[in-house]
Amino acid sequence: MNETTITAQPDTPFIDVVREFDATPAQVYRAWTDPDLIPQWMGPHGFTMELIEYDATTGGRYRYVHRDADGEYGFRGVFHTVVANKRIVQTFQYDGRPNDVSLESLTFEDLGGRTRVRTRSVFPSVESRDGAIASGMENGLRDSMARLEKVLTSQ
Amino acid sequence: MNETTITAQPDTPFIDVVREFDATPAQVYRAWTDPDLIPQWMGPHGFTMELIEYDATTGGRYRYVHRDADGEYGFRGVFHTVVANKRIVQTFQYDGRPNDVSLESLTFEDLGGRTRVRTRSVFPSVESRDGAIASGMENGLRDSMARLEKVLTSQ
């Protein structure tokens, strides 16, 4: 399995994620934006995902809910920029922390048949970033990346 | 005239703006979101403003162009959250720096007939924030706030 590198330097509001996939940018991008594929990988192991809205176009918006036996967790945001197979800039909000809206920039880099995905999330404060880390988002992210790899392999 | 306080701590990606107005939150909010009023104050002295789109609702988007004798400068973004008279969270992009999308959180605080507006902008990197400062955005912001005060006084 490919590695997921998550970097959160102290005293900054950034979280950086780098992950490579053994698939083309078009394949990875499709899994990242197709409402039929997203619920197959997005979120931690053991959760179901309901996609309420997912319009991955510039100016579009998304909303989804993760559920497990303990409860449900809603997320939403808007897409500032969507360039197919290349780049996504979107906002991100967990309903439980509505004042901690973050901005995520994703790039899909062509490594010649393989793809490197880079994500930079920036939060409105260092405390807000630290809160996201404390909520366990790193594990959820690693789970998601592993699940996405499986989806890409099975296609 | 009320003072505009702009804070940009070194080595952070934040710009904070605080400005009070001798008007109610409803009046300030209206000037901030009404497509007929915005071109009367937004932007530096000496520029005209063309509002191409300005849908200040959650999930809406905006686009406008500032023009002077030297050229034109386009801006666009999406509204993540809009709560009338209280709070706006929106993305912001200058067309000349499309990779430096920032996220702005505005609050309209009721001081009893007067209003304190706070804006926090967060950029995807410290360099990107420094670039925005170097581009002269502080002067444009001070001009805008002074012009907005005039619009509010004349109503």
From TrEMBL, chains A, B:
Q: Which residues form the Activator of Hsp90 ATPase homologue 1/2-like C-terminal domain?
A: 22-152
Q: Which InterPro entries match?
A: ASHA1/2-like_C, START-like_dom_sf
Instruction: Tell me which domain of life the UniProt entry assigns to the organism this sequence originates from.
Output: Bacteria
Gene3D superfamilies given for it? Answer: 3.30.530.20
A Pfam family of the record is AHSA1
Q: Which family does it belong to?
A: Belongs to the AHA1 family.
Put simply, this protein is called Activator of HSP90 ATPase
Q: Which organism is it from?
A: Amycolatopsis taiwanensis
